[in-house]
Design a protein that fits this description.
It is a single chain. The chain is α/β, with parallel strands linked by helices. 32% of the residues lie in helices and 25% in strands. It is built from 11 helices and 11 strands. The strands form 2 sheets. The chain has a 6-stranded mixed beta sheet, with helices on both faces. The longest helix is centred in the middle third of the chain and has 19 residues, at 111-129. The protein is globular. The two termini are 40 Å apart.
Amino acid sequence: MSERLTHLDSDGRARMVDVGDKAVTARTATATGRLETLPHVIALVRADDLPKADVLATARIAGIAGAKKTSELIPLCHQIPLSSVKIDFTFERAAILVTATATTTGQTGVEMEALTAVAIAALTLHDMVKAVDPGAVTTGIQLVSKTGGKHGHWTRASRNETTDTTAGDAAAPVGLRQGTAAVVVASTGGAAGTRPDTTGPTIGAWLTGNGYAVDAVTVVADADIAAELARVVATRPAVVITTGGTGLSPTDATPEATRPLLDRELPGVAEAIRARGMKVTPTAALSRGLAGTANGTVVVNLPGSPGGVADGLAVLDGLLEHLVAQIIGGGPHA
């Protein structure tokens, strides 16, 4: 083992780690888990038609409460001041994916808080559906990313667990939700409601027109883009397109939020988007947008202007289909 387990003293006895000398940094962790059940139960949950009502709201509140009590449930965890706990649910044909993102500013990480939030939320879902499906299974609880502290940014993709090697070269990345997409808008004004968002709906409509089921178009302040993008990528859609935050203003942070999530960059795609924009305006060269894959999910940063989005979508038209097909093993290789 390359690193000593810090929760053990020199005699091998459990101890609480002293974090007093650690730096105070902003820390974020995202975890996921799944409740596997029957398709008709998923339909009942979506319609809010189970005997126990308000299923998702109850599970969300339970998960948040669980995160707050992590130090009480897990003996060696520190009590930490949570800045936020965000829990989301994504429906699949026969499962509900639970995603939790916990944030704090402190001297120790929030991985266990995110994992506990997922576990408690998933178990609450289990409790809510057990009357109609006693065979439901809660599974796959795992940390997918974390930021802050000595080790900086970590993602599950960095462990090279991106494909199912037992299925041969044509296997898609495990857990990738083919045919799905999400849009994230980085706009402080849009998130505050002081500026209308026009680019997000444009991208969402384009994706729908190209055959993707769009999970959501979310609008967040520039300061929140890292946590939101990590959360969305953790839900494993086939495609995530961002808009905004690619310039040089002090608050623009989308490339910084994107790069740690990528296991493979696609510089040619980003350069093609910039080149198309430069045909109209030279300032397009200042865009720092990235493109790449994160555990099988295609992630593309587009500028925040309507013209920049139009240019980016024009580049992706046809190219995106080819790229996604390569990832799932069904397309010709470049």
